[in-house]
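Same chain as my last thread, 160 residues:
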Amino acid sequence: MASRSEAALLTATKEIIATQGIKNLAMIDIADLSQVSRATLYNHFRDKDAVLYSLLSREVIYLFKNAPKNPAELLEYFSCAISSDAALAGMRSHDPAILTKMLLRSEDKIWHAIDAFFVTALGSEVKAAIAISWLIGQVLQPLTPEQSRAQGAQLIHANL
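reply #2:
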């Protein structure tokens, strides 16, 4: 469980990304917005990359914990969360190259967790791979809630 100061730092980071992007994100701004001392900030995170990785981890864990069990509802939930996320919108506006680079599949433990979660939730590696690709696309091109619901249901009911 994160401390109150760590939670405040991550919330501030997300707010700054939403309005200014990652390139303009400075450790001093994170400390100031979160009303946490710089020393406390550096006690929690060694640098901006560590803050960003922690924020990404927190967001993914939150989504996993709150995801519905029904596969169609689960896809709609993730789609709506991705499409409406303010930080992702900020990155689309301010940092499209960074955002695109972040979406490249890697051997990182976050990607492994995402893969495992969707394989378990959807009961198929093929459906999980298609669902993840569909969701990655929405990071760059968000959907409306109606599109999320319809496309998620269609994906679940496809004979894959």
